[in-house]
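hey so u asked for the seq, here:
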Amino acid sequence: MIKSKFSFLIALCLVLIIGTLIVGCSKKSTDPVTYSWQPMDSGLGNPARALAVYDGKLIAGGSFTTAGGEDINYIASWNGSMWDSLGSGVNADVVALTVYDGKLIAGGFFTTAGGEDISRIAAWDGSSWTALGAGVNNLVSSLAVYDGKLIAGGEFDNAGVEVANHIASWDGSSWAPIGAGVNSSVYDLTVYDGKLIAGGYFTTAGGENASKIASWDGSMWDSLGSGFSGGLGPKIYAMTIYNGELIAGGVFTTAGGEDISYIAAWDGLMWDSLESELNGNVRALTVYNGKLIAGGEFDTAGVEGANNIASWDGSSWAPLGAGVNSTVSSLTVYDGKLIAGGYFTSAEGVSANYIAAWGPE
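ran it, structure tokens below
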């Protein structure tokens, strides 16, 4: 009898222990994940203007000459815990970054990279910088890959030995114009519906009317409706793809002839608003955790207060914590976190010099 009672007590204890473990695990799995802004070491010495991911590292380009307190010229890598240089870097601002043919491509104002004469665009292979032919003759402010070629946009009118009005392609050995190009600056590039999309300050593409945005199908330029107007010097600064639509952000109060301010969606036929909008310029766009992220110069998103950065879930805007204290000019995703770069020096009230991460604590 005593042995039977002892066995029963042991079994009861095991049941209670297992039950406690199951409840604990269940509670843990349903606890909401807390997101917050996090500094990245001591950050950068000046604004981050471009972000990309290359060789498993976050790459930041901008106007800084220090990163993590170390002397690093205008471009740096972050491995999750510390900043490092890319050789001797470049000699002026990096404004655009992408990856092409297994190499990191940087564009900007610079005229040397790795100590060599390299004009405004250069490739980093993990150990050294190389030129892309003779480069271009003025600022490169946007980069993308389309139809197997690297596309550069900016303020230049020559690429290599070719006349190329603000946009050109590099096939790995030579530069070529993209039709007749556009008549003013290109600030961003993306690919949508099998076409290259250019956004900027221009009013014509291929000699035809195209107000601030145009598409290239490989042989000709076309407008996207009546484009954008209104505001102080309307322009498109940023584009991305979300829920099958092209999202464009910038400085404007009219899209496709409708009253739409700062951010708009193109479904292939017409421009539409994102219901309630933002109250200031949009400088950067990306997608994170299934939501559209917009960064720029605003303090309201929809009906919510949102300091310079906000998320859109398809129906409403929401702030990202307390946001940041100045302009967000670049966005990307790295190591499961949203990375924001710009002109801010604090994120959610915590010191974060020009770059910060938003993600799980």
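The longest helix spans residues 2-30. The radius of gyration is 24 Å.
lmk if thats what u needed
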